[in-house]
What does this fold into?
Amino acid sequence: MPNDSFQKKIIKTNVNGLDEILGGGLIRGSLYLIEGPPGSGKTILGNQIIFILANEKEPAAFITLLAESHGKMLAHIGEMIYFDECKVGTDISFYGAYHILEEGKLPALRKYLIDLIHDQDLKFMVIDGFKIVNFFSSGEMECASFIHELSALASATGCTIIILNQGTESIKPTSLEALVDGIIELKLVNTGLRTIREIQIHKMRGLSQNKGKHIFKITTDGVRIFTRTESRKVESFLLNSSIENLKFGVKYLDEMINGGLKVGSTTSLVGPPGSGKTILGLKFLEEGLKRGETCVYFGFYEEPDRLVKKAAGIGLDLTPYLKNQKLTMLWYAPTENLIDEISEILINHISGHKASRVLIDGIDGMKMSEAYPERLSKYMAAFSILLRHSGATTVFTEETSFNFESTNKLGEHSALLENIISLRYVEVLSKLHRILTIMKVSESEYDSSLREFSISYQGITVNQNSFSADEFLEQKNTGTI
It folds into this structure.
């Protein structure tokens, strides 16, 4: 059996999303590098980690090698929710060591750090402005030796040391990146007129990190990381096929799809503006609400208040369900959102409320949030799997162009969906008629005939047969209209 002294102890940082991409957290007594350009969030993240972890039994120190006081930095992080003034000077000490470097260079700084760790029995240390070390060293060999000694110091004392460094251009990989136990890179990336923040774990000894780029943002909560949706690990599972299909509650439509949608399936309602996609989606939710189910509406275009009034106009009274919290309505303007944040919030909400039905109204709004359009098909595949794993049955609405002749080309993700229902218009005698078609239902028989349907104050009505739709199309094809 291995000696306890050689067993790694993983410390969870409890920074939102960080432990998930690190592979569990940080290893006690290791040396880590957080690097990035000015303004990328290095100092905020370094402080966030020690403010969360430090306590009376496990004190921390923040050392700056910059020729400036801690006053401005403390004033800035003082706005953060994680900041605890009671910890300053007790659990966490702040020191300036520029004068140590200036007077005695690296040997003096080495002794200063060793004494500090031993005298205060420090368990965490953050060293800010590490780039300046290169300027006070006699060359690369001395710099590499200093970093190696820092690593040995961390290992010998059990003090986890985090270095904050501005980029890597001034210190070669052989002297810094190769010697640390983990590398966390923060980036500011311009995509068009927009700037997004990215984090990437390049190295994490002893842990299986989630590789690749992930999005993060900085708010008063500090750094919050959103794991790239398609990189999230999901175990295989089987849905309970014995559960009754979920109905729309629209006569004849439910018959067309063989009794309703399979539990855990994903369905797209596609059609031009005004064709009835949102209303049909809300009807699906209302049917579940009447059966005592918990439902979630997630939209990008119409705000909840307007939508509730719109639904009331066709006999769907959603207000009681909002009051008893059986229905939750979430809304995000289709602007500069983060697509991984959207999926995380929605999945967490569905799981937390055990929602059985979900309507995502305006999937185009979700696509508009993505900075890298080329990843959308993989994202949608992963997102659909996560939705199925949540146990929810999800209906998307997707807008096509205003074309009376066809449903137009569907999005690439249509192959990932179990069911597709098309809503469109046919123009007859200068009047538009709504036509509904079932284009796809996986693992089930379905009626693919065209049906005329209408939306009125009495609700949604689907014709019993395709006679009227056939007549419209025949008149159109023969030119008798």
